[in-house]
Amino acid sequence: MTRNSRPLAVFDLDNTLSDARHRQRFLERAPRDWDAFFAAAPKDPPLAPGVELCLEAAGDCDVVYLTGRPERCREDTVVWLAEHGLPKGPVHMRRNQDRRPARVTKLEILRRLSATREIRMLVDDDELVCEAAERAGFRVVRARWAESSEALVEAQEKEGRT
């Protein structure tokens, strides 16, 4: 195994770096409007605590973004990161048709990343992702600076959509 000298700091997006509260309303109706939920993501305001932690981590680490957003949101996501002055780094996204829970998909990517690089920390708001990552031996920082609706929590775990 070849290791780069700089560790990785892995950051979630929704409700960690970006404030998704304004678009959670699209998930609180039946049926859930996923297209509208993701289409509104470029309007997310940044969350200062997450952005500050990301910028601070970039001093010692290479930043990687790990999101449950589907691949079709890549362009909007990359533009949003640049517009808000976040460090450049690879963005790992869910395949468009992947409906597995975030705790499964994100842990799979963390394990793949850790095969060649030290992961200094994972910063995420999803409690189940955090618990799974800790059980796997990763250092976790819980992003508790934004409110998630019950609908978003259910979507993350049961519907594998974000």
List keywords for this structure.
Rossmann fold, 6 helices
Secondary-structure blueprint:
Layout: E1 8-11, H1 34-39, H2 48-57, E2 62-70, H3 74-83, E3 91-94, H4 102-114, E4 119-124, H5 127-135, E5 140-142, H6 150-159
Parallel strand pairs: 1-2, 1-4, 2-3, 4-5
Description:
- The structure is a single chain.
- With 162 residues, this protein is an alpha/beta fold.
- It has a single domain (8-159), classed as Rossmann fold, CATH 3.40.50.
- The protein is 36% helix and 16% strand.
- The chain is built from 6 helices and 5 strands.
- It has helices at residues 34-39, 48-57, 74-83, 102-114, 127-135, 150-159, and strands at residues 8-11, 62-70, 91-94, 119-124, 140-142.
- The protein has a 5-stranded parallel beta sheet, sandwiched between helices.
- β4, α5 and β5 (140-142) form a beta-alpha-beta unit.
- α4 (102-114) packs parallel to α5.
- The model has no long low-confidence stretch (mean pLDDT 91).
CATH superfamily: HAD superfamily/HAD-like
Query: If you consult CATH, what is the topology?
Result: Rossmann fold
Our count of helices gives 6
CATH class: Alpha Beta
Strand numbers in spatial order across the main sheet: 3-2-1-4-5
Structural class by secondary-structure content: alpha/beta
| Number of E-type strands | 5
Low-confidence segments: none
- SSE topology string: EHHEHEHEHEH
Beta-strand level of the residues, as a percent range?
15-25%
Please estimate the helix content.
25-40%
pLDDT averaged residue by residue: 91
Rg on CA atoms, Å: 15 Å
Largest sheet: 5 strands, parallel
Please give the CATH architecture.
3-Layer(aba) Sandwich
Query: What is the molecular shape?
Result: globular
Provide the number of structural domains. 1
